[in-house]
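Design review, sub-item: ligand-bound model
Attendees: FS, YL, KQ
YL presented the inputs for the phosphoribosyl ATP complex:
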Amino acid sequence: MAVSAKRGSRKTEDATPKKRAAKDGATKKGASKKKALPVPAPEIAPAGAQVLDRLFETVQSRRGTDPALSHSARLLSRGRKKIAQKFGEEAVECLIEAVAGKPGELVSESADVLYHLIVMWVDAGITPEEVWSELRRRQSMSGVQEKASRNPEGSV
Ligand SMILES: N=c1c2ncn([C@@H]3O[C@H](COP(=O)(O)OP(=O)(O)OP(=O)(O)O)[C@@H](O)[C@H]3O)c2ncn1[C@@H]1O[C@H](COP(=O)(O)O)[C@@H](O)[C@H]1O
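KQ shared the predicted structure:
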């Protein structure tokens, strides 16, 4: 992702919804005539990890909508390879900030990674509940035990 388009802590002029719409292909004039897509009301913002369920619902609702109004719609319309590529780019940016020891940047990059992961789930037709269920299953076993169960003879 171009740094100029980043959300979160790095406030840049490209980060506003209006400029994002322009960047995504709509002219400023054309975008202003279009009705903005609905976003969840902030007063009923979900707590903690439920924010991911809400984000999933929003991204899913964007499928097939106007790419000029929705970054998710644009990304979904560009296909699986592009979606995977964007996720990979965000993951790399995340690890760069982790290695650089920049917690604030890591928070912002982590949000980007989660957003792009959710776009990938929507494209693949899987739900967050399937992932939560897998995580719950793993909670019954430590990571060390799980790895040992995969490598019964102790091979790495
Ligand atoms: N969390 C995000 C989010 N994080 C990052 N981004 C956007 O992702 C884009 C990444 O920029 P890039 O330059 O990397 O992407 P790009 O334009 O595809 O780049 P190229 O590959 O074309 O070079 C930026 O425009 C960011 O604003 C996001 N866009 C949307 N969301 C969430 O998704 C919801 C729905 O958004 P829309 O689909 O836009 O309605 C929003 O309410 C948010 O909650």
